[in-house]
Fold this sequence. Notes:
The structure holds two protein chains of two kinds.
Chain A: E1 2-7, H1 11-22, E2 27-30, H2 54-60, H3 67-84, E3 89-90, E4 97-100, E5 106-109, E6 112-113, E7 123-130, H4 138-148, E8 152-159, H5 171-178, H6 181-197, E9 205-209, H7 217-228, E10 231-235, H8 242-258, E11 261-263, E12 267-274, E13 277-285, E14 288-299, H9 303-306, E15 309-311, E16 316-318, E17 338-340, H10 357-376
Parallel strand pairs in A: 1-2, 1-14, 2-11, 7-8, 7-9, 9-10, 14-17
Antiparallel strand pairs in A: 3-6, 4-5, 12-13, 13-14, 15-16
Chain B: H1 24-28, H2 30-34, H3 41-52, H4 71-75, H5 82-97, H6 101-107, H7 109-118, H8 120-126, H9 130-140, H10 156-159, E1 170-174, H11 176-182, H12 184-196, E2 200-202, H13 211-215, H14 219-237, E3 242-245, H15 248-262, H16 265-271, E4 274-276, H17 277-286, E5 299-303, H18 307-310, H19 317-322, E6 328-332, H20 351-368, E7 372-374, H21 378-387, E8 392-393, H22 395-406
Parallel strand pairs in B: 1-2, 1-3, 3-4, 5-6, 5-7, 7-8
Helix pairs in contact in B: 3-5, 7-8, 7-11, 11-12, 12-22, 14-15, 14-16, 15-16
Amino acid sequence: MYDVVVVGQGLTGLLSAIYAKQQNKKVALVAKGTGKNQQSTGLMGLLPGSTKGLAEWLKYFDFINQDKIMIKHGINHFKSLMDQGSYPYLGEIENPVPIVTASGHVKYTALYPKSVTPIIEGGRVVVVGFHEMIDFQPQFMKGNLLTARPKLTVETMKVKLGASSQRTMTQLDAARLLDQKEVRERVISQIKEKLNECKLSKVDMFIFPSALGIHDWQDTLEHFRTELQASITEAPGLPPNASAIRLNEVLQRKAIKLGVRFYLDSEVIGCKLRAEKLTQISVRSNHRISQIKGSHFVLATGGVLGGGLEVTTTNIKETALQLPVDHNGAFIKKPINVYPVGAALGKNVYSHGITGGIYSIVSSYSANLQIIKIEQNGGLQHA
Amino acid sequence: MGDYSMLELNFHDTTFEKCLKCHACTANCPISSATLDFGGPKHLGPELKRLMDNQQVIDDHRIELCTLCGTCDISCPENVHISTLTAYLKAIHNEQQGTKFRDFVLGNAEIVGKLASAFAPVTNITMKIKPIRKMMQMMMGIHADRQFPTYQFHHFHRKYNKKQSNTKRKVAYFVGCYATYNAPEVAEAFVKIMEYNHIEVAIPEQKCCGVPMFANGQMKQGLKNATYNTDKLLEYTRQGYDIVMTCTSCTLAFKKEYTSFLRTEEANELATHIYDANEYLRQLHDQDELNVDFAPMEVKAAYFAPCHMKGQGIGNPTMDILELIPDYQIQDLAASCCGQCGTFGFKAEKYQYSMKLGNELAETVAEVDSDYTVTECGMCKNQLNQVTNKPVKHPMEIILESYEKSHNK
């Protein structure tokens, strides 16, 4: 019997589990996989794919003036969590900043990890790719970047990490290599050599793939910054991005260390209701079905993209609890102790099936506040 | 091709087509994190399967680096059981290349256990003699620096061999090779803990669960053992017994591998009766049947979760039970794979990868600085013994200690 059962291990799932555990609750997290967090960029946007700001965001997600303090607390809570995990996030939701992606597009984000720096308006940037890594092509990026930032001068180069790989090398693999000092030194000396060859003396910014170290990302970033004497940014692209892997690792480790019980390789395939309350969920793992009981259930199943909602030819199906939902994927009759968060809410998906990181953070925080409030008022029987 | 060509396989799992190539499996694979030499689960699992379907069978030597830890299975957001595919690729590789003598020996933990414990004092001393170990590395490919678990002459089967249980609740104990030959104290602790809960333990006829065989590509022999064990244990479950195990690899084999590899109704039926020992105790507790007469223990312990525990999807029953002991503090290390991975860490050519993961684990253990480390897996313990200075205990030993203290024993 758990106080809080969280379904899903993406950003909303991990945050919800951590928040509940910080309230000294008995918490279980049930997940069939690692969630979509690892496939993300690690950047927290307001309205994904748009340049819209906080005012539009508040309106889109039906927040009212009174919610502003809660939102601020939620964001601060997330930031302090990441500070404690030694992977600090910068930025403010009032003031989204432009960052460049691996395709050279400029997008706006509200919060970003310290390994990412907003893209400059003008000046000289050098895009550095690695020969061994095909997922990041500096020349391709250059074209798009120049369209978005015509005042920039963009140079490109490719250097060798100096490692052969038996599999397609990803940003994550490169990041693990760059954790090693000798690999960094090899890369830096090649960059300097190429700068000399092209007689490039002043560079304002270097753009790398999202691969500047995993566990030693701070050393890596500092090493590049000092040696190259310019600002440095990671440009997130095809997963796995180091920026997202670090975020996921910090949250996962925090949840485990706090004592959240992880039911892994476990798929929720139904539930049991009594009156208007959910009493337990049915979980299938390894061809076995068991029941997990709880007082509160946070549904962090990620909507259509996360697999919590399934679009069929005629309607939308909710796959975990298997309760009826409307044409957006919102519960028609939500049990009082079920708290859908992020994209699992159904109605609030913005674009490409996602709600944006900021909404994920805020809705996880807000669901936790609802649980606290119910508990303070004497639990569900009085709700 | 032999019996295990992927062409002819009718997999229990039909979910492989759900693979989106998102890379979560390879991103989380412990061996992939340690080296670029490994092809990774995504490529050697679903991608290779797609390549082979309706075409030629491909033997890929890179599969040798897969440890069958199953981290890929728990990582996949689409619920694809990648390790089923890699296990069969191991079988294909073995069939085409033949089994190395070393891998045959390592795969047969039970025969090794029988022999080694028969000559236990000699075996244990011999395995510590440097020149002999050097020779073993040269001739057998077993790394000279790898510490071996010790073998016990008075192994468990010599001490306890009841075939029937006469209590209301009936437990049949699948002991496994490690608790039989290397750590009979764990098996004895389990039996005594059950006694404290008024449950008599029976020991069914059993063979090695097969996990070391699957990991070494000896699929045929592994399936033979799986069938034998399934038949023997079903005789018990059909009489109302619960099957309980103290080794997380054995437990996962019955819950996952047997159902995926054997693909029989019998394997499925049996799987619903299989419990990890702590999972079983937790269930007793949930039903108010657990003897909670635990004496306080002022201990600060660290818990290392074996990969094969994580793969069972049962939460963290070891910590759930140990936290019932008054004053007992336990902290999950939140660590990745230990790197021993059963027989993997003994092999000379794999030793460097094993130690890379082992040294990372050692750092994590040092950061937490507990009195000792708790883990259920004998092989994880072997690695922890080698890379850390902390003692390593099985949860059963701790629970028994608390019960005995409370009963002044």
